[in-house]
Specification:
Layout: H1 4-7, H2 9-15, H3 18-32, H4 35-54, E1 60-65, H5 69-83, E2 86-91, H6 96-103, E3 111-115, H7 117-125, E4 129-130, H8 135-140, E5 153-165, E6 189-190, H9 197-210, H10 212-224, H11 234-243, E7 248-252, H12 254-260, H13 265-272, E8 274-277, E9 288-296, H14 302-312, H15 315-325, E10 328-329, H16 338-342, H17 353-370
Parallel strand pairs: 1-2, 1-3, 6-7
Antiparallel strand pairs: 3-9, 4-9, 5-7, 5-8, 5-9, 5-10
Helix pairs in contact: 3-4, 5-15, 9-10, 9-17, 10-17, 11-13, 12-13
Length: 372
């Protein structure tokens, strides 16, 4: 279980009057916008403020989610409060794309929620997502974090970072992800298997930055620098640093928050043992992946489904991503919560996220060749 700060999210929202705050923030954004933006936003604001109450009050959407209930329930609760739209959810870590494909036009699904560009691309490649035209989504999500054909949308940013031992590695020893190939780190690095979608996307980003030949050279040197066979999840790498098995690891940034505020004292010790390193700040920026979603191709409630995605990119939900799972907002107008802000600002790689999906097969071939 996580720290009580997560369990208290709903109570905090109730105390601060979040239900009314959602509408107030929309009105304030409208009032403070430049004149041209006010004109462009007029239709959006009218929909956001009034249609949820009038047209959607009795509506229900069906969600297929790869994300755990504990991570998305606060979003569902706040969405229903703000719009009156009810939600029904099917949770599964695997097999939802195949289920949706088998159901075909009879599928009850309206919205798909998942993590990582590879999983979003799977739905798109199977032609399971509808193209969506939404001025709200276009305004709230930068172009490089959504599909060029509007079939899927990034909903939160996930930085894949380097972590180092606070005791055994100087603070500025690693500046770039490319530094992990240096001989200095022989037998000092831990990672989960390279074939995991998180590492495959990282590998794809290196192909995009340097080309396949240079990316494979980096991967070969990384594998030569490993302290042990790739294994475990990202938390296991922090644990290995705590245990002295290695000094450097690759992990998604939100795991740090999940460990730091965990009810398990051992996991808090793992977090205390590591330092976060946002890489490539002097050049392209730190590699970014996303959680995201889209509207099911055969949705019978497309208007409500789009309203849900729009809600997830607004201020209330974007703050929740940081509070619930320590993920960064995709909406550049929303500042990260205090805990994330305390980790420091950082430059993001603006590589179009769908490019990672295009390069994933090539990345996997390199991973297989080098034995990562």
């Amino acid at each position: 279980m996580r720290h009580n700060s997560r369990a208290g999210v709903s109570e905090k929202m109730r105390v601060t009057g979040i239900e009314n705050g959602f509408r107030n923030r929309l009105r304030n954004s409208f009032a403070n916008s430049p004149v041209i933006l006010r004109w462009l936003m007029a239709g959006c604001v009218a929909v956001c403020l009034w249609l949820p109450v009038q047209a959607f009050a009795a509506g229900t959407i069906n969600i297929y989610s790869h994300r755990q209930q504990i991570l998305i329930q606060p979003f569902l609760d706040e969405f229903t409060k703000a719009t009156g739209i009810q939600t029904k959810v099917v949770y599964a870590s695997k097999g939802l794309a195949q289920r949706l494909q088998a159901e075909g036009a009879a599928s009850p699904a309206d919205v798909i929620l998942t993590v990582d560009i590879a999983r979003l691309a799977e739905y798109a490649n199977l032609d399971l997502l509808a193209s969506v035209e939404s001025a709200v989504l276009t305004a709230n999500i930068p172009a490089h974090l959504r599909a060029s054909d509007n079939r899927w949308f990034g909903l939160s940013e996930r930085a894949r970072i380097v972590v180092t031992s606070r005791d055994r590695v100087p603070a500025d020893a690693i500046q770039r992800i490319e530094d992990l190939a240096d001989a200095e780190w022989q037998q000092r690095i831990c990672t989960r298997p390279g074939s995991h979608v998180y590492n495959r996307a990282l590998m794809a980003s290196l192909i995009a930055a340097h080309g396949a030949e240079a990316a494979q050279s980096w991967a070969e040197k990384l594998v030569a620098n490993l302290a042990r066979k790739p294994q475990g999840n990202d938390r296991a790498q922090a644990k290995a640093i705590f245990q002295g098995i290695c000094d450097v690891a690759i992990m998604n940034s939100y795991y740090y928050g999940n460990m730091k505020f965990n009810d398990d004292a051992e996991q808090r010790s793992w977090a205390d043992a590591i330092r976060l390193v946002f890489t490539n700040q002097a050049d392209r920026g730190n590699h970014i992946n996303i959680s995201g979603g889209g509207v099911a191709k055969h949705s019978r409630n497309k208007q409500q489904a789009v309203a849900f995605l729009e809600f997830l990119t607004g201020e209330v939900a974007q703050q929740l991503y940081g509070t619930v799972n320590y993920e960064y907002p995709v909406n550049p107008a929303v500042a990260p919560p205090a805990e994330l802000a305390s980790w420091g600002p950082f430059k993001r790689d603006k590589l179009p996220i769908e490019r990672l999906a295009e390069l994933a097969p090539q990345a996997q071939m390199i991973i297989d060749r080098v034995g990562w």
